[in-house]
Write the structure tokens for this entry.
Amino acid sequence: MVTKSTPPNQIGDTTSAFALSTFFPEKAQPWVEWMCKVGYKVANMCRLVDAMQSCLKKRQIEKAKQKS
């Protein structure tokens, strides 16, 4: 997952080694990368990315409270 403000608020691994396109054959990778970029832009415009990030952060805080 790519976040607007990386390191401190980053969730997930954003290196190219973990990109979704790496699971596809080399010939299909450019198309998959393009679809992922378009999908991310649409999700970001609909504010789905921010909603998912805030949900994930809340869950991490709740898990940390339960452990202590």
In short: The chain has one domain: 12-67.
